[in-house]
Amino acid sequence: GSLLAAADLRKVYGPTTALDGAAFSLHPGEIVAVMGPSGSGKSTLLHCLAGIVTPDSGTVTYDGRELSAMTDAGRSALRRSEFGFVFQFGRLVPELTCVENVALPLRLNGTSRREAERAALSWMERLEVADLGRKRPGEVSGGQGQRIAVARALATRPRVLFADEPTGALDSLNGERVMELLTEAARSAGAAVVLVTHEARVAAYSDREVVVRDGRSRDMERLV
Ligand code: ADP
Ligand code: ADP
């Protein structure tokens, strides 16, 4: 069955209908690209799936539990323990070193500093940024920063990685490298991925594509 599923999602912001009956499903370990033009509702769909935004109507079910039936604290705990996030801009903490950034979610989950930094370095090795551990985010390139953000997102071993335009700020060469390493690391970690992108060459790294248009979603047959 589905690990994460949504049906009939509707979300209105004032005069704007962001979602108008969107549906979605994700199987364990699957990489699904959510495509569509700017403003079509992709990010709103991702935020509903992750329990960050509450839809006006419709359901989101994670591992048999309906998110709307949970408390804010319950959804928050679910995000911390089961989900990982990568955004367009790494959102690394500028005052911390890169290895401290990757270790941070583990520290917040109660892992000792020593163990968290050991795990962080091993994830950074997989993302080929282990040599940047002692640098601060301001001293690394955009592509390196995104690879560090991916290491941070996977270090807690989430079952779902949410990636919202993870290569949106990168040139195509760096973007492809981030996608290669992100998908390889997610697959080896057994994490499913919800990948929001408007770029076909980024979506090509997925197993399946869902297209959102005017707040409605549909599954796409791969044309190639
Ligand atoms: P996409 O990710 O495909 O660019 P979004 O989900 O961000 O689309 O946005 C869908 C529509 O909803 C857009 O018209 C956007 O301006 C609007 N929208 C999204 N979030 C908000 C918000 N917090 N407040 C008001 N309007 C929003
Ligand atoms: P962009 O739209 O340029 O990709 P962001 O990646 O910063 O910008 O934000 C994407 C969406 O995530 C926006 O709709 C914004 O409202 C929402 N957002 C930004 N920060 C947070 C946050 N800390 N928690 C939840 N939602 C957020």
TrEMBL record:
InterPro entries for the chain: AAA+_ATPase, ABC_transporter-like_ATP-bd, ABC_transpr_LolD-like, MacB-like_ATP-bd, P-loop_NTPase
Example GO molecular function: ATP binding
Annotated keywords: ATP-binding, Nucleotide-binding, Transport
Transmembrane annotation, as ranges: none
PROSITE patterns: ABC_TRANSPORTER_2 (PS50893)
Chain ranges of the ABC transporter domain: 4-224
Domain of life of the native organism: Bacteria
SUPFAM superfamilies xrefs: P-loop containing nucleoside triphosphate hydrolases
Name of the protein this chain belongs to: ABC transporter ATP-binding protein
Organism: Streptomyces tropicalis
Upper classification of the organism: Bacteria, Bacillati, Actinomycetota, Actinomycetes, Kitasatosporales
